[in-house]
Amino acid sequence: xxxxxxxxxxxxxxxxxxxxxxxxxxxxxxxxxxxxxxxxxxxxxxxxxxxxxxxxxxxxxxxxxxxxxxxxxxxxxxxxxxxxxxxxxxxxxxxxxxxxxxxxxxxxxxxxxxxxxxxxxxxxxxxxxxxxxxxxxxxxx
Length: 141
Prior knowledge:
disordered N terminus; single chain; mainly alpha
């Protein structure tokens, strides 16, 4: 399992599927000169790992959403190292944009196992996200 997906899986397996598959693309103004330490520090964060399992589904979804939006901000602020391959950088941009636009109602559906409605992604974007996952896992491994 790749680094990004391991972090997401900590929140919930359905959220992993939903977030991995809902990416819609887009550009990012994130820097392209991040140090390895800074980049890997953000990549190895674990959003969703401290969500209260006793909280209501709505509160869990809000907590997960807030944590992934924060991750998006951190990723966008830090950026990527300059030697990232182009397709992995494009996957990074997809992830940043998707997490930024994450909706707690969609997360709640995913947490409840009803992710079909939000799993809309082009095969091209999915491949880019997979490339980023693979690259960042190797780079920060």
